[in-house]
Write a structure and sequence with these properties.
The chain is mainly beta. About 5% of the residues lie in helices and about 50% in strands. A hairpin with a 5-residue loop joins strand 12 and strand 13.
């Protein structure tokens, strides 16, 4: 498949029947409730109630309360789908609700030998429910990580949770460029990062919906349940 001059290398279109789990050929669950380095409040589980296909072409990551504690899902393609360069893209509708944190991002597959942030991180989409009109894209590298990550943002008139949008990063050997619905809003170059550039090796993908954390903020009482819907995830190589 060729789209806008790019060859589709891999995709998950989430077209399985309602109630089907994420495709295990591509995705694995990361589970636990230790805060994930961000002070997150949820327990990530492998339960169908937290991650399932809806039968209408979407993956649903659902945050809700179980025995009083927030639960959600974190899915990764580590060891299953890993690429270098090209376009990383998803079409998604972020979760609504103060204290929720929807994300689509990528980590270097050398993370075991080069612990974060030396492995590099590319955040294609992040949105927090307390700032419904804002999304941002970020690169994390040594010397510029976590709160000091290299970020750009896009602000629109309507809440991002109102409808689906297309979020992408064009990853070239010497640059990263972030887009929403085809609008470029942030670019980083190898020249600007110098020795901190960490984007010359394969990365794997992660989708998650966090509750709370240093970025998500304190969740509102009525924030849960809420759903992060993903229509597709695609990886294109320049044609």
């Amino acid at each position: 498949m060729l789209i806008e001059g790019r060859k589709l290398l891999w995709s998950d279109e989430f077209e399985q029947p309602a109630g089907a789990p994420p495709n295990p050929e591509f995705w694995m669950h990361e589970t636990g409730g230790h805060g994930w380095g961000n002070g997150e409040l949820q327990q990530y589980t492998a339960a169908i109630s937290n991650a399932f296909q809806d039968g209408s072409g979407n993956l649903v990551i659902r945050a809700h309360r179980d025995a009083g504690r927030p639960t959600s899902a974190r899915l990764t393609t580590k060891g299953r789908v890993e690429f270098a360069y090209g376009r990383l893209e998803c079409r998604a509708k972020v979760a609504a609700g103060k204290g929720l944190w929807s994300a689509f991002w990528a980590l270097g597959n050398d993370i075991e030998d080069a612990p974060w942030p030396r492995c590099g991180e590319i955040d294609i989409l992040e949105n927090v429910g307390s700032q419904p009109h804002r999304v941002f894209g970020t690169a994390h590298v040594p010397g510029a990580s976590k709160e000091r990550g290299l970020s750009g943002e896009l602000i629109i008139d309507q809440p991002f949770s109102d409808r689906f949008h297309t979020f992408s990063v064009d990853w070239e050997p010497d640059s990263l460029s972030w887009q929403v619905d085809g609008i470029t809003y942030h670019t980083l170059t190898r020249g600007a990062l110098g020795q901190a550039w960490r984007f010359d090796h394969p990365f794997y993908l992660t989708l998650n919906l966090a509750v709370g954390g240093w970025l998500g903020g304190e969740p509102a009482e009525d924030a849960l349940p809420s759903e992060f819907l993903i229509d597709y995830v695609r990886w294109y190589r320049p044609d």
